[in-house]
Amino acid sequence: GQNIDQPTEMTATEGAIVQINCTYQTSGFNGLFWYQQHAGEAPTFLSYNVLDGLEEKGRFSSFLSRSKGYSYLLLKELQMKDSASYLCALSGGYNKLIFGAGTRLAVHP
Amino acid sequence: KAGVTQTPRYLIKTRGQQVTLSCSPISGHRSVSWYQQTPGQGLQFLFEYFSETQRNKGNFPGRFSGRQFSNSRSEMNVSTLELGDSALYLCASSLAQGKYEQYFGPGTRLTVT
Questions:
Q1: What angle do CA A68, A59, B106 make, to 5 degrees?
Q2: Which of A15, A18, A43, B62 has the fewest CB within 10 Å, making it most exposed?
Q3: How far apart are CA B27 and CA B30, in angstroms?
Q4: Per the CB < 8 Å rule, is B98 touching A30?
Q5: Strand, helix or coil at A96?
Q6: pLDDT by residue (tens digit) across A5-64?
Q7: CA–CA separation, B36 vs B57, rounded Å?
Q8: Does B66 touch chain A (CB under 8 A)?
């Protein structure tokens, strides 16, 4: 099976940096995705890691360590519009994504 | 390029009825996946279609079915609706598989009374 754990909620201040962790237990997967979902909207793609290491994309970075069963999403220079749920998902065969429950991030002024 | 579209956006049905939801992928995308999102269970994979063939299926009862047409448009059907089927149903399209990101549609909000 694939247990994926993320913190339920996090709060942070505008302009700060926040790290959202994702841990998993699985026998195998192709890669790990991060999606952002604003309330009432569809998830939107943020990043994809297939190899261990850091992937940077503007204010967002994602890290993967397969040996430790661990990933994180790093958000820098937080803005109010970053208040959303962040979903970690493992990619299995044929586009099957197994999602974690998501982390609700609230950014305060 | 137009995004993924889903129709209808909102639907109210009664227990025991059946429902069909439609998804049009981004032009050129041949893979369509369906997900159910509920507050209690989060986002759960239903099934995936590629070139009219179901390649993968999640752990849902046989009441949930789908199909894909030659133009890559996809439909999912839920028969004998139950109250617990109330959810947001999302479809996502992608070019191929694996490393290709999936683009989600706005979803169909199904309420079963």
A1: 90
A2: B62
A3: 8
A4: yes
A5: coil
A6: 999 999 999 999 999 999 999 868 889 999 999 998 999 999 999 999 999 989 999 999
A7: 13
A8: no
